[in-house]
Amino acid sequence: MDAAILGLDIGTTSTKAVLFDLSGAEPAAAEQSYRLRTPQRGWAEQAPEELWQAVLYVLGAIAAHTRARALPPKRPLVLALAAQS
């Protein structure tokens, strides 16, 4: 099983994931968009379930992409995570 670095960005309007091998190559990436609600001026809201489903989707898409391309399984050694507050 090859080692890898997994990046996960839970942003304002989408969640992105990218997988890097230890040489810096990018064997897989995925993105899932969602809505940013603005019920009043100056407000911004997100639905936690939409964020969670987006995380599950991008991680599943990374795994499916590596399987579909017949790449060796990747074992993330590091998770780099970014999220808005």
In percent, how much strand structure appears in the residues?
A: 35-45%
Tally of separate helices: 1
Question: Compute the gyration radius: what is it?
Answer: 15 Å
Helix percent band = 10-25%
- Poorly predicted ranges: none
What's the end-to-end separation, in Å? Answer: 35 Å
How are helices and strands ordered from N to C?
EEEHE
- Give the helix/strand class: alpha+beta
Oligomer: single chain
- Tell me the number of strands: 4
Mean pLDDT: 89
Characteristics:
4-stranded mixed β-sheet, elongated, 85 residues, 4 strands, alpha+beta, 25% helix
Task: Describe the structure in your own words.
The protein has about 80 residues and is of the alpha+beta class. About 25% of the residues lie in helices and about 40% in strands. The protein has 1 helix and 4 strands, in the order βββαβ. It has one helix at about 50-70, and strands at about 1-10, 15-20, 30-35, 75-85. It has a 4-stranded mixed beta sheet, covered by helices on one side. The longest helix is centred in the last third of the chain and has 21 residues, at about 50-70. It is elongated. It starts with a strand and ends with a strand. The relative contact order is 0.32. The model has no long low-confidence stretch (mean pLDDT about 90).
